[in-house]
Amino acid sequence: MDYFLTIATLILIFIILNQSYNLIIGYTGMVHLGHVAFMAIGAYTSAILTTAYGTPFWFGLLSGIILAALAGLLLGIPTVRFRDDYLVAATLGMGEIIKIILINERQFTGGSTGIPAIAPPDFFGLVLKNNFYLFIFTLVITALIMLFVWRLTHSPFGKTLEAVREDETAAKSLGKNTNLIRLQILIIGAGIAGLSGVLYAHTTQFIDPNVFDVHRMIFVLLQVVFGGSGTFWGPVVGTVTLFTVFETMRFLPLPPHIMGPMRWIIYSLILILIIIFKPTGIMGKKLVRKRL
Amino acid sequence: MPILKIQHLVKRFGGLSAINHCNFEITENSITSLIGPNGAGKTTMFDVITGLSQHDSGEIYFKENPIGALPAYKRCRLGIARTHQAIRIFPELTALENIMLAFKSNKESLFDIFTPFKKHQKKLKEKAFEYLRMINLHEKAHETAISLSYGQQKLLEIMRAVATDADLFLLDEPAAGVNRTMLHTIINIIKRLKQEGKTIVIVEHDMNFVMDLSEKVIVMDYGKEIAEGTPSEIQNNPKVLEAYLGVKHTN
Asked: Which of chain A's residues have a Cβ under 8 Å away from the Cβ of B100?
């Protein structure tokens, strides 16, 4: 039972992450491949603050979100002008740089051994030790994030995001400050990703740089595209389906040296199938989009 | 009073001067056509005026203020709207949403999501419906723009520009590839804008359309204005015939 609750909590955490990624790639159309780095910043900030400095969980949570959002701002300022393949290269590079920093700054991050023994979330003495409480807590936060994203995407601001994705030149001609809009959504996306990172660190109680590598990034991309990028329920469907598929694969009677590559074969297969049969994702519209 | 003044404008693409020391003025509340052979720099002129591409030297004055250094979105907010030669609508958004994105009273900043906007949106929706009714698209308001026909998309783009409530409209080939009925609708829209006190500049190759509608015609060739005047003056101007036909016109 505990195992299932942990898996369910992790699914919720990745729904938060994927929903924030969906804002950037799905609604605004920025192919940003360094998104898990924001999650890493959130996770490490809170983990370091609570383990090394003994700060309360809520402080770690807030710091994680703020620092990740700040990283979004810093990355955004030079890259909001980038398009398509240039943006891909720049953001992919940024993701790797963050990972390298995490590996090398050993005195803070513990290097490649990571940070063990991160305390579970607690609020003013109320420790969420029990997996069930942890699940409920994550569920509430997920619901709040979903509400926020719903409100955002159904607002006039949300429509300008889609306008930027659909035709940037036209959006500029209509008086939209497209660079500012991209920067704003990058900061929001980074902040939410930071939140998911904090939750991840305190749920698994252990993090190392490999959790936030490019494999994770591809998995996030796959989940969002599979579910339907630019749709509200797409990332949820994508996360739940693919996470469940890969978790069930653990129970297959296969040796680990086959399991690892198998996962990648299945990733690719799913991606190929979705591109052929439903390019807009499971929850996507019927029309074929020009971009992701 | 000229609403738009182009002064010694230069725009180079590498070694090619797409606009080469061009000068002209557009009178307020007039319909002016910008004509010229292919590659004369007409669309580039629109791009430079709206700020989609940056000019190299010279200055653009809009309502007597220099706007050459402003980014495209600010120029739109000042009151310059345009349509594009190749249709630029938001294909996956509905016709209604396309129009609504043009409204300046839209509460579209990020921080507005924390304030109530439903009521305001409803009002804007009704206003957008009225715009769609003018081009007979109100029944397709909730269809995605990409599913509309070519002509309907073109009308939608023009209407979207109208919905920005600009003072100066730059229409790039509004008559290209549309049927007679739609052409009629477009002409009506332009005449109506003129009645409302707006200024319209048209780039067009359909000479009947140009000569019927415009009060003034500016002819461009090799990035420079070579003639301007009323339609009848232009039709008899030897320089214009030379630019189009490439031979010296003799009586």
From this structure: 156, 159
Closest CA to A195 of A132, A149, A150, A129: A149
Enumerate chain B positions whose Cβ falls within 8 A of a Cβ in A: 50-52, 71-74, 76-77, 81-82, 84, 88-93, 97, 100-102, 104, 106-110, 112-113, 117, 121, 144, 146-147, 160, 164
Which of the listed CATH numbers 3.30.450.20, 3.40.50.300, 3.40.1280.10, 3.90.550.10 matches domain B1-79+167-177+198-251?
3.40.50.300
The enclosing H or E element of B11 equals strand B2-13
Q: How far is A178 from chain B (nearest CA, A)?
A: 8
List every span in chain B annotated with CATH 3.40.50.300.
1-79+167-177+198-251
What dihedral do alpha carbons B18, B24, B25, B29 form, nearest 10°?
A: -60
Nearest-CA distance B87 → chain A (Å): 9
- List residues in chain A touching B: CB distance below 8 A: 151-152, 155-160, 162-163, 166-167, 169-178, 184, 188, 285, 287, 289-290
ipTM above 0.95, yes or no: no
Q: What is the pLDDT of residues B198-218, one digit of tens each?
A: 999 999 888 888 888 889 999
